[in-house]
Each structure stands twice: as structure tokens, then as C-alpha cells.
Amino acid sequence: MKFAKILLFSLIAFSFVNCVELFQSKKKKDNTDALLAALFVAPNCGSGSVSDAAGKGTRYQFSGCSGDVTATLRAFGFTANGVSFGGGLQGTSNSSTILTNASSLSETGNDSKAGIEITYIMNQADSTVDALIQSTPSFIGPGVQLSPTVAKWLDSATAADFVTTASKPWTSSVGVPKTVCLEVHKENSKGHIFGWSIPCNLANRSTYEFEEEDATIKGGITDGRIGLKINKAVIQSITIYTTKLGLNKSIQ
What we know:
This protein is α+β, with helices and mostly antiparallel strands. The protein has 2 domains: 1-41; 43-241, Jelly Rolls, CATH 2.60.120.560. Helix content is 19%, strand content 39%. Strands 1, 2, 4, 5, 7, 12, 13, 14 and 16 form a 9-stranded antiparallel sheet that branches. Strands 3-6-15-8-9-10-11 form a 7-stranded antiparallel sheet.
């Protein structure tokens, strides 16, 4: 009788473990299937390595994606909220967001750095894209706010004009693709925020088109994630660089 009880307990435990493993495998398979399905439907949906004049990184393309946006972005390493697929990642308000699930720094430590390139389309004149670079999961940190014709620097949700080097207006990006290159350096407790209104591989990386030195970030610079708030705009791609972009010798 004692042997029978032990055997019965072993069989129950074995069945439970198998069920757990089956559930976990199914969950992983579902995520993989969602990603593979998107890749087979359109080639402009997925991630790939980039190595160009600006450095090395990973480019995430969304313009060809369709289907389950949450599962697909999870497979890419992002958390999504309030976005949909349609020629890219469609957002309708500042509540439409994506955020990397892990730190995306090109350099770590007290002088941490993070750089990105974004290709986007603004849907109307009051559209904005907030790019939080070295963000927390709550979108606290430094970044750049993009409007159809100009850039401002961000302290979390608060935008202000660039002062060190003012952002000059560019041709409106309403209805047409626009690519910008952005970087944030943590310098001691403050931020050095700068960028260019052109692709990173075309930028003169020794001088900045718009820049804010010694930017005070009220919540501090405490994390290394990349986050986007997509207000009435479409994100076609984002490249996260693993090498620093800015080469100005004044950078610490």
C-alpha cells in the first residue's frame, strides 16, 4: 500500500511538471509564431543589425507589420500600450507608447550614453513624438520632443526650447517620412541632450544641430530604457545604437 501511494504521488507530480512545461512552451511558441507570421507577411517588419558611418546597433522596422501588435513588439523586446499597426506603429495620443524591456545604453556608468535614430510620419500639425532616452519604465528621464517642424528637449513630460544650440525649423513632416538622430549623455547628475534632423550616418557627429548642455532632470537619470510617446504619428522604424554617436570633444 505504501509503495502504491508513492507511485501515485510520483505520477501526479510528473503530470503536473509536464503540464507546466507544456504551458510555458506554448506561451513561447505563441510569441515566436506571432513574430514569424509578421515577418512572412511583409519584409519590413523585424529587427536586424546595423553597421554604418554612425556606428553599430539594431534597427527595428515596423512599416510592414500587421496582426497582434502586443505580441509582436514583445518578441522585439518592447512593451506596447495603445498602439496599432498601419504603415508602422500608429499612435493617437501621449498614452500611445512603446518602451524597451531592458536598458539600451551604448555606454554605462556615471557618464552613461544612449543614442537612437527614428523614422516617423506626423499625421497632423499638432502631432508630437516624445523620445525618452535613458528613461525609467514610468517615462521619467531626459529626451527630445519632435513636432512636425522642430525639436525641443524633454525633462520627462516637460518640453523646453534648446538653448545651447537652438533647433532651427525644418520642412514639415506632416504626411511624409522624417528621420532624426538623437543622443543623451548623463554627465554627473545632469543631461547632455543633442541631435540632428537627418539620419545618423549623414550627420556631422562633431557638431550638433540642436543641443542642451547641463539639462536638469528633476527625476534624475536612473535607468537606460528607450521610450516613445506617439501622439497622432506613425513610427516606421527605430534604431538603437550600441556605440556612441556624438564626437564633440566637449562631451565628458
